[in-house]
Amino acid sequence: MEKLSGSWTRVFDQFWFVPAVCVVAAVVLAQSVVAVDRWLPENLDSPWISWLYAVGIDGSRGMLSAIGGSMLAVAATAFSITISVVATASSTYGPRLVRNFMADRGNQVVLGVLVSTFIYSLLVLRTIRSASDDLAQPFVPHLAVNLAVVLAVADVALVVYFIHHIADSVQVDTLVHGVRRRLLAVIDRWHPEERPEELVRSAGGRRGGGQVSAGVVGYVITVDLERLGSFAADQDVFVELVPRVGDHVLSGEPLFRVWPEHRAEELADRLRRTVALGDSRSADQDVRFAEQQVVELAVRALSPSTNDPYTAVNAIEEVAAGIVAAVSRPLPGDTVVVDGVHRLRYGVVGLDEIVDMPFDQIRPHATGHVSVLCALVDLAARIGSATVHPAVERQVREHVEVLLEQFRDSAPNPRDLARVERHVTARLGG
């Protein structure tokens, strides 16, 4: 079974993580290169390395000051651009997509390298000594100074890349493709093509059980199922995770139920450590939230203030990839078996929920756009032809019937109604 642990993933996605790593690397690099400069002899006659000594004390100080100051200014400008893009994306595409911008590796690397170049130049600058200084003998870290020039040239290339990347990141196509990839990733995690041997589907939950409360208020972000199943086997207990990933829990609400009941209090703290609760949902393991991000793009595009049915159609086409992947595979397991004994049960998002979301949330806003209605019909046809579950095929046909009924009640233009009805007949056979 795949390990579903998101603690380190959440740390890696933090906006500060990559810049912090770059700054630490800059400190280590500066100290290391200066140490090499101190080890090298003062006068080297080799023509291959004579170019390293072309800059004197004053020139080295001026060069490092210029590089450090300019890189810090560029980093501040890049940060301002990023904040502006985040604000624009939040108001246009939805606040839940802001995290995707903040977790963007390209933005993090650019800002990290620019800031680390400033730190590197500052640390090398403080090691330069002239004859007028009261400290030691004159010293110029030629190798370190020339490396700073190389970093400055690389930073210019990064700035060009950043301008292109930040402009591309706010394009609708880029946003939709990004949320589609996240949806497919989480579908593959919870709905694999082949169910692992240690996962089975249970007939139903048990009654009773010792309750382990959540202890804090928040959303269930990630669950370490592998660790949880192994722990239940080691302790010879059966554990049920009550909320699903993405559910909101209060501090006094049950997080786990444990059998035998008297072991619940004893194991409470260690059980809680296998579940990460947070103030906001994450698409790392949350199928519903990953799908909601795609659907939200369509809903916002159909708002009167935006009125962009083309983006809505694009979002509907992209959400089909995740839904079709889920309905074309066997039902996922919800119980972990260790050495032939049921040890852990957890809730999974049903196919009915995955299929219902785009229809239920987009349909109320789509009656005024024939192209969007046809896209929903196409979505139903794709799901119906791909699914291996007869109940899902019946479900999408019911959605199309509701869609047509709602469209007729809105008194559409007869030509629009005829067009939608012909499309339904062509795709679903009536």
Arithmetic mean of pLDDT:
86
Structure summary, number of beta strands: 9
C-alpha end-to-end distance = 43 Å
Looking at the structure, what is the overall shape? Answer: flat
Number of helices: 15
Strand order of the largest sheet: 1-8-9-4-6-2
Helix-strand makeup class? alpha+beta
Strand content: 5-15%
* H/E element order: HHHHHHHEEEHEEEHEHHEEHHHH
Radius of gyration: 29 Å
Contiguous low-pLDDT stretches (5 residues minimum) are 1-6
Helix content: 55-70%
Question: How can the largest sheet be summarized?
Answer: 6 strands, mixed
Please characterize this protein's 3D structure:
The protein is an alpha+beta fold. The chain has a domain at 7-170. 61% of the residues lie in helices and 9% in strands. The protein has 15 helices and 9 strands. The chain has helices at residues 7-13, 17-39, 57-93, 98-102, 105-125, 142-169, 172-190, 225-235, 264-272, 287-301, 309-327, 351-366, 370-386, 390-409, 414-428, and strands spanning 199-200, 210-213, 218-223, 238-241, 248-249, 254-259, 275-278, 335-338, 341-346. The strands form 2 sheets. Strands 1-8-9-4-6-2 form a 6-stranded mixed beta sheet, covered by helices on one side. Strands 5-3-7 form a 3-stranded antiparallel beta sheet, with no helix packed on it. Strand 8 and strand 9 form a beta hairpin. Helix 2 (17-39) runs parallel beside helix 5 (105-125) and helix 3 (57-93) packs parallel to helix 6. The longest helix has 37 residues, at 57-93. 37% of the residues are buried. Mean pLDDT is 86; it is low at 1-6.
